[in-house]
Amino acid sequence: MFKIGDHVVYGSKGVCAVADITQMKMPGAEKERPYYVLHPVWDSGARVYLPADSEKAVIRKVITKEEGKQLISEMPKIGCLPVAEDKKREQDYKDAMRTCDCRLLVSLIKTLAARKEERIAAGKKNTALDERYLRAAEHELYDELAIALDQSKEEVTSQIRKIIGIPEN
Question: 30 lies in which domain range?
Answer without folding.
Answer: 7-61
